[in-house]
Structures are given as structure tokens and as C-alpha cells.
Amino acid sequence: MKDGGSLVDRITPKPRPHEVVAAGAVVATMSLPGVTGVWWLVFVALPAYALIWWAFRTDRIRTGQVFENLTELTAATGAGNHNETLPGVTLVSPARNEEAGLETAVRSLAAIRYPVLEVIVVDDHSTDATPAILDRLAEAFPRIRVLHDPPAQAGWLGKANAVRHALAHATIEAEWLLFTDADVVFHPQAVRRAVVHAQEEGLDFLTCLPRLDTGSLTEKLLLPGMWRRLITHVPHRHLNDPDALPVGIGAFMLVRRKTYSLSGGHGAHAAYHAEDALLAGAIKSVGGRVGVAWTPDLLRIRLYRGWRDLRPAFVRKGRVYGDDNILYPLRGAVTRLLPQLLPLPLSLCAVAHQVYSGTFSIFLSLYALVGCAVYIELVRSFDQIEKVTDMPRWAAWLHPIGAPWRAWICLETILRCLLHTRVSWRGRAEPDHSTMT
After folding, report:
1. Diameter of the chain by CA atoms?
2. Displacement of CA 386 from its chain's centroid (Å)
3. pLDDT tier for residue 423 given thresholds of 50, 70 and 90
4. What are the backbone dihedrals phi and psi of residue 83, each rounded to the nearest 5 degrees, phi first?
């Protein structure tokens, strides 16, 4: 990173070498008895296992606390009839090569029940069927307004530039702006519920966590864990404290227009990724009140469609948010991948050593039991996110199977960081990401 201010640095902190080394030492220590079958190494491994178990349990408890404290917005509760008092909303949805889920999402925008709503979908230089789909839907639904190919603006990344172009062509002076992604499916009451809640709570910014839909096995094994980490790190008790990290979820960000303009909006960090969290931070920087909610039925999103779509997306995120520093994917490997993968196989190894040698070791048996306890603790953590994903219960028990895919992503990220290959997304090469976050 070359500029962008402390907010960018705080949102995308870079790992330090000693953190990676320390985490690697814990994982290595945990593995020794299972790999070697030496019983006395169990005493060395147990503290490492205890640390990992404690970390998993802490995350599970924190996730539960977040759910208890965050507002839940649903289709069945809350809004009443506010047609006469509801303020206008301009909804902006940038779309680049979104043909797979675009039609369902845009049709849901057309079906939103809200008295004064302008819907602008921006085709951001798509090379697939996105433009044709949008033009057809715009003809079928007069509410949908389509803008094609926004002119590039120096210093602006594609998504932020698409938003800038849409707002420049808005036809109403709406009190609220709503930014969403082109793969988000809205319930007809979603905008009404969000606006009423934001006004009742005196918010300037409201972001909502949608329900995560998954299709392929790779999606079911890899994405819910990412969703859980997102929830776990919401600073629910001090969201509006100046020092609390801002939370923004690009799928749904409702912003008071006056505060958006005062903060500089997307232009405040136009050249940087994580535009959702950065927008929340910009709103906080001018004294705006921010809020986070989760919803089981008002919003749905399928982030990626299978391994072919998911892999390049995760590699890109690892490079962009890690600033092409290989410590970033390495930290992910030793703090998340290996602790999730190893406990169950290592427990089986400890049992296999005893079976193969024909002897019984109470210490290796204890090691196997502790490993199973760590594995079960992680499985338990997935029960909580059933509220916001369609993840079947059996997938939680199979989470170690996703390790080879996660390892592939880590290795490819490291390799591309070392080779400094150009970052691209959805067919478009991005600016040198060493200048971005």
C-alpha cells in the first residue's frame, strides 16, 4: 500500500512473520504424537491441542453472542404500513459478467414493494450475456433502469466507478441510497424493513448479512466457514465506537444520502478494494451512526458457483487483501486450514499406531480423544450459522474433506504472489494490486 490512510491499514492488517512462526510451531507440536506414535510426546502436544480447542470454543461463543445482540430483520415482523411517510430510495446494483444469477436477482428488484424506489443496474463492461439479459428485463419491468459501460474514471476501481456513474444519472433526490450486488435476491419487503429500522434507530448506515445459498459440494464445505468468520468478527457491543473496525457487507448497504455525500462516499477510497467496509468507515469518520443486521429470509445470495468460480475468487482476495504478501496465505494455512484439517486424521493415526503395534497406550488414546474433542468443537460451531446459510448438518461433519481445496487455494495464492502475475477478475485485468488493499 502506498497511501489510503490508517483506515485502509486497519481493515487489511498484514501478518507479521513471528505470528506465522508461532502458529506453525503450535500446529507442529500438536502433530508430533500422531505422526510419530511416541507416547511421551503427548505431554508436549496437549497444551497445543488445548490452545486450539480454546480458540475454536471462543469463536463459537462469540458467534453466538453476535447473533444474540445483532438485530434480526425478517419478512414477518416489524414494518407495518408506512407508505405515506417512507422516504425515497435509489438502489444501485453494479453487474459485471453476472449472467448465471442475474435474472433471478433483477426480477426480485422489480418485485420490491416500496412506494418511491429508483432501481439502477449498471452493466460494467460485461463480456457475457449480462447486457442482453438486462435489456430484456428492462423492457419487461419499467422500474428497472439499465446503464451500460460507465466511462472509466482515473483512480477509480470498476465497482466504485459503476456506482459513481449510476448516482450521476439518478433521476430522484432520494433520502436514502441502497448499494447491492447483482447476485442478491430480495424479498419484496426487504427495503421497507431496512428503511424503517434505520429510521427508528437513527442510523446513517445499515448493512445486512444475507442468507447464503450453496450449490456444489465445494461451496458447502468452504463458504459457510467464511460466513461464520464474518459474523464472529462483528464488534456487536461497540459498533459505533471510534476505534471499532467498521463493518460493511457489499450485498446490502443502506446509506443516508446526506451523510454519504458528506463522507465522500465511494470516492473517499475509490482506488481500494474492501469498498464496503471502507464506506462504513467513511460514514463513521463524519459522525454517522452505523448498524448491522442479519436476516434469514429478506436477502439471499449465492456468492460463487462451484470450484471453477470459487477458486479464482479466493486467490484474488488473498492477493488483494494481503497486498501480495505470502505471509497472508501462510497465516491462513497455519491458523485455519491445518488446525481444522489435522485433529481427526491425527486421532486416527494414534489409534492406528496402537493397532499396528498390538499394544495399548493410555497416553496415545488420550491424545486421540482430545483430537476428537477439537474436531467436534469445530463441528458444533457450524450449527450456529444454519440461521444464515442453507448448509446441511452433514456438511459440518465433513469439513476436513474441504482441506485439499483450501490447500490448493493457499498454494496457488502463494505461487501467484511470488510470480507477481497480474490480478484479474471476471475477465478484466485490475490495476497493480500492490497499490491497493
Report:
1. 79
2. 16
3. confident
4. -55, -40
Fill in the DSSP letter of residue 425. E
Q: Closest Cα to residue 366, out of 386, 345, 351?
A: 351
> Please, what is the average pLDDT of the chain?
89
Beta carbons of 191 and 175 less than 8 angstroms apart: no
**pLDDT the model gives residue 128:** 93
Domain boundaries, the chain: 5-68+309-435, 71-304
- Top-ranked range on mean pLDDT: pick from 11-20, 30-39, 80-89: 30-39
> Are the C-beta atoms of 162 and 122 separated by less than 8 Å?
yes
Task: Tell me the C-alpha distance between 292 and 237, whole Å.
Answer: 11
Architecture of the domain whose range is 71-304? Alpha-Beta Complex (3.90)
The model carries a pTM of 0.90
- CA 20 from chain centre, in angstroms, equals 23
Neighbours of 4 (CB within 10 A): 18
For residue range 395-422, what is the model confidence (pLDDT) as tens digits?
889 888 888 888 899 999 999 989 888 8
Q: State in Å, rounded, how far the first CA of the chain is from the last one.
A: 7
Q: Say which residue the cell 506414535 belongs to.
A: 37
- Between CA 211 and CA 249 the distance in angstroms is 12
Enumerate helices (H) and strands (E) in the chain, giving the number of each: 17, 13
C-alpha cell at 380: 458444533
